[in-house]
Each structure stands twice: as structure tokens, then as C-alpha cells.
Amino acid sequence: MNKLNIYNKKRDFSKTKEPKGNIDKKKGMLSFVVQHHLARKDHYDLRLELAGTLKSWAVPKGPSYNPQDKRLAILVEDHPISYRSFEGTIPKGEYGGGTVMVWDKGTWSSDGAAKDSLKKGMLKFTLKGKKLTGDWALVHMKEDNWLLIKEKDQFSTDKIDISKYDVSVKTGRTMDEIARNVKK
Ligand code: MN
């Protein structure tokens, strides 16, 4: 079964500008993206490239640099790798309708086989992004519920509120500018 069937079924590509789901088998550095998604509920989507797709979690409160914060991260359907550069507005009434910002992007890595770690329910990984860096963990709770936790390192802090980072790393636009389709 194609890992992107669920992604493709949920969307009407005649109505949304999101990319169609194709599995991408390139080699090299693994990418990650965090998209701020102002849908019915405001949330952030963490996506880690793995085996040709983006493993995806919806994080209602977004990531935190504070190791004390355990942020709920709900596993959602795999997304195509091309989704990492999607920024724009999904039409109202369509799946995920609302504004999407490329909030952070970069590369990620983990010691050992990430696929096995995910199966076992504990992935420790390192991000090299513009907003998110250093060591992180995804810990499985039950069903689709995971926790996203910042590990203690030189980047962890209780002094930064992520909401102060409110522009796209792709275009420098705010959510409001993306929603109004302002060109920058
Ligand atoms: Mn989302």
C-alpha cells in the first residue's frame, strides 16, 4: 500500500494548491519542516523526512525550547516530501482549510535507525533549522498521541516563547500576509 494514499484521498487537488503525493526516493541529508497551520484550530505541523515521505505530527501548542514542556504531538498521515515548501492558503471547506506558513526548515539526524526507533516509540533526534536546533525527543504515549520534548543542551531555555517567531523562513511573511497573498 502506498504510504501517501491517505494523504491523496483526503484532498481534492482541483481545489487545493497543496502538492500531489508522490514518494520521493532521493538520498542525502534528511530534511525537516515545521509549518504553522492556522486551520479550524491553530497548530504547528512537525514533518521529518524518512524513507521517501514526510512523517508528520500536528503539535497543537507548537514546539518549546523548555525541556519541562511536554508538547502533545498527534501523528497524522505521511505527507509528500514536496510538501516541505508548501506555503499558502488551503481553501475553506477543504481538508485542513486555512493558512500554512513555512515556520522553520532545515535538516535532521538521529543515531541509529530512525524507523526502528519510531516503531519502538522513542525517537531522539537533532534538528538544524533556523528556529529549532539541538536535541529533541518524540515519545509515544498511546494510539496517535506522542510527546515532543526538547532535550537539555546548550539551546534549551525557559526564556523563549516561540510565538515571537511569527514570520516565514521561506518568504519573511506573517500569517496575515500569507492569507492576503502579499508578495515579498
Ligand atoms: Mn496541519
SSE blueprint and pairings:
Layout: H1 5-10, E1 30-38, E2 42-50, E3 53-59, E4 70-79, E5 88-90, E6 98-109, H2 114-120, E7 122-129, E8 133-142, E9 145-150, H3 175-179
Antiparallel strand pairs: 1-2, 1-6, 2-3, 3-4, 4-9, 5-6, 6-7, 7-8, 8-9
The structure holds manganese (II) ion (MN).
Description:
The protein is mostly beta strands. It contains three helices and nine strands; from the N terminus they run αββββββαβββα. The protein has helices at residues 5-10, 114-120, 175-179; strands at 30-38, 42-50, 53-59, 70-79, 88-90, 98-109, 122-129, 133-142, 145-150. The N and C termini lie far apart (40 Å). The relative contact order is 0.20. Bound molecules: manganese (II) ion.
Index terms:
3 helices; 8-stranded antiparallel barrel; binds manganese (II) ion; 10% helix; globular; mainly beta
Provide a brief overview of the structure.
The chain is built from three helices and nine strands.
What is the ordering of alpha helices and beta strands?
HEEEEEEHEEEH
Instruction: State the major sheet.
Output: 8 strands, antiparallel, barrel
The distinct ligands, each listed once, are: manganese (II) ion
Mean pLDDT: 95
Shape: globular
Proportion of beta-strand residues: 35-45%
- The total domain count is 1
| Unreliable stretches covering 5 or more consecutive residues | none
The quaternary state of the protein chains shown equals single chain
Q: For the CA atoms, what is the radius of gyration?
A: 16 Å
Count of individual beta strands: 9
Helix content: under 10%
Structural category is mainly beta
Please state how the strands of the largest beta sheet are arranged side by side: 1-2-3-4-9-8-7-6
Number of helices: 3
Distance between the termini: 40 Å
